[in-house]
Design brief:
binds magnesium ion; about 260 residues; binds adenosine-5'-triphosphate; globular; 9 helices; 4-stranded antiparallel β-sheet
């Protein structure tokens, strides 16, 4: 499961960059799908500059948590604040919130009929009302940063999965988000492409981006995460540093889960 030794770094970003004020705050958040209680009294704070890894078995609510933070899912009770502001219900305020919260999914979700460059400039031009030339310049700089500038004129289908996922990261960054959410960004990739995406994420973390990352990539967690939260059955069961969590999980559920993923 652990693919990641491509980047050599000294460890979590924590040592070099002190964490800032709370940026994402969930207070007593509950969510049901019919009879299924998928988020149970979730209390979680992510500070500015923090990299939080969310880990847990299938169906434990990790994607629902991410989607709730971006308000792609509503919640039944509790409160979610981004940079001190409660999530807006709808309208312009919600669109603004969405651009503050960048999201990268498991499937690359690029617009299939637009070029790579257009994929990255579309949001800034349409939503942020940036000038086309400025948006293009910044998009090219972002594509360069994720290592795919030379693909700018191609269509998504002409790129590998790893390249497409790096474009998806550039596209999210083009909206100048305050926080980036990643939901299993490497789990649909062929193994040889996983590191190229993780390396971009590690670099982002080192630059101080606030990140919530659902992943089972322990190499990434160890290198980049300040904290790991373990979810099971809609609850946060355990919170620890990556080192503590992977070497000495406290709960039976975490031990059981780790023994399963570590044997792969
Ligand atoms: N739109 C939906 N309608 C009904 N049930 C849903 C919906 N989305 C998710 N669920 C259920 O909610 C629970 C949590 O799902 P979620 O996708 O958040 O889990 P997950 O931890 O991301 O799992 P995985 O590791 O498989 O991605 C699951 O039991 C799932 O079947
Ligand atoms: Mg999921």
């Amino acid at each position: 499961m652990d693919h990641g030794e491509a980047t050599t770094t000294t460890g979590p970003v924590e040592a070099s960059a002190p964490l800032g004020p709370p940026l994402v705050e969930l207070t007593d958040v509950n969510k049901h799908f019919g009879d299924l209680h998928v988020l149970k009294d979730i209390n979680l704070t992510v500070r500015k500059g923090e990299v939080l890894v969310v880990i847990g078995p299938s169906g434990s609510g990790k994607s629902t948590l991410c989607r709730a933070i971006n308000r792609l899912e509503t919640i039944d009770s509790g409160e979610i604040r981004i940079d001190g502001v409660p999530l807006p219900e709808e309208g312009k305020a919600l669109a603004k919130l969405r651009s503050d919260v960048g999201m990268v999914f498991q499937a690359f979700n690029l617009f299939a009929h637009k070029t790579i460059l257009e994929n990255v400039t579309l949001g800034p031009i349409k939503v942020r009302r940036e000038k086309t030339s400025a948006a293009k310049d910044r998009a090219l700089a972002l594509l360069d940063r994720v290592g795919v500038k030379n693909q700018a004129g191609k269509m998504p289908a002409q790129l590998s999965g790893g390249q497409q996922q790096r474009v998806a990261i550039a596209r999210a960054l083009a909206m100048k988000p305050k926080v980036m959410l990643f939901d299993e960004p490497t789990s649909a990739l062929d193994p040889e492409m996983i590191n190229e995406v993780l390396d971009v994420m590690v670099a982002l973390a080192q630059e101080g981006m606030t990140m919530v990352v659902v992943t089972h990539e322990m190499g990434f967690a160890r290198k980049a995460a300040n904290r790991v939260v373990f979810m099971s059955d809609g609850e946060i069961v355990e919170e620890a540093t990556p080192e503590e969590f992977f070497t000495a999980p406290r709960s039976g559920r975490a031990k059981d889960f780790l023994s399963k993923i570590l044997t792969h």
